[in-house]
Amino acid sequence: MLTTIVKTTMKKEVIKSAERGRSDYGWLKSYHSFSFGTYQNYNNMGFGLLRVINDDTVAAGEGFGTHPHANMEIVSIPLEGNLAHKDSTGNEEVIKTGDVQIMSAGTGLTHSEYNHSKTDRVKFLQIWVHPKEKNINPRYEQKTFALEDRINNLQVVVAPNNENAVWINQDSWFSQIKLVDNEFTYNLNKPGNGVYVFIISGEIELNYEKYEARDGIGISEVDSIKIKSQDAEILFIEVPMK
Fold first, then answer.
1. How many angstroms separate the CA atoms of 203 and 200, rounded?
2. Shared domain check, 42 and 137
3. What is the distance between the alpha carbons of residues 147 and 98, in angstroms, rounded to a whole number?
4. Closest by Cα among 121, 140, 24, 30 to 82
5. Which CATH number fits the domain that encloses residue 211?
6. Does 198 reside within a domain?
7. Residue 146 exposed, middle or buried by CB count within 10 Å (0-12, 13-18, 19+)
8. Do 184 and 227 share a structural domain?
9. Average pLDDT over residues 153-171
């Protein structure tokens, strides 16, 4: 069976897993889909208003000390283990696998993130999206999502208009699916948006081409895309392109 893209005017930007930037500090091993920290590629500064996708592994008992942010929507998605969070607005939480956390940094805040375990590593994605409205009051939200509910079913975890998801200060939607021996059509929520398809695990077929775990495919100028997989976990990040 072949997979098709709905609109032939599709634009596509592919970042293979092995092409990502990498930082290794011993306690932290991080892969960067877009320019970040010591990895600077001025031809790769994001996808639309999506600015950062960091794929981080933090050693037991280690973490990021207190540091500032402002005017950025910051989403954290644990993939393995638990992440301890503390910020200057009084939030002190543990983010577990199945949770999704968002901080709207707004006018500015400081926070720290540490591996909650003294024995096991933690793996998580941290994703930054430019905000729709600047200088809002900083805010924090966290929700737990049932992993079984995303099997062959789109689970919206971040949205500006869905009370079941965490709220984001942007016309942006994050959705997850575990596709098992199936095809799925993702329909974009807003005209003019693009969608970044990040493969957490497994392999997919999209527009006649195959992609593997940690590959990222930015697609714009379409209304929908169709994906086929035997077994893959996929994160869709839909964002305005300008």
1. 9
2. yes
3. 6
4. 121
5. 2.60.120.10
6. yes
7. exposed
8. yes
9. 97
Domain end position, chosen among 93, 110, 144 = 144
* Number of structural domains in the chain: 2
Give the chain's end-to-end CA distance (angstroms, integer): 35
Query: In angstroms, rounded to a whole number, what is the distance separating the alpha carbons of residues 150 and 179?
Result: 8
Give how far Cα 35 sits from Cα of 42, 52, 128, 160, Å.
7, 7, 12, 26
Beta bridge partners of 201: 233
Q: Is residue 17 helix, strand or coil? A: helix
Cβ atoms of residues 109 and 87 within 8 Å? yes
List the structure tokens of 73.
Answer: 């929507």
Range of the domain at 59: 21-144
- Whether residue 183 is found in the same domain as residue 101: no
Mind listing the pLDDT tens digit for each residue in 76-134? 999 999 999 999 989 999 999 999 999 999 999 999 999 999 999 999 999 999 999 99
Torsion of CA 110, 113, 114, 117, to 10 degrees: 130
Confidence (pTM)? 0.94
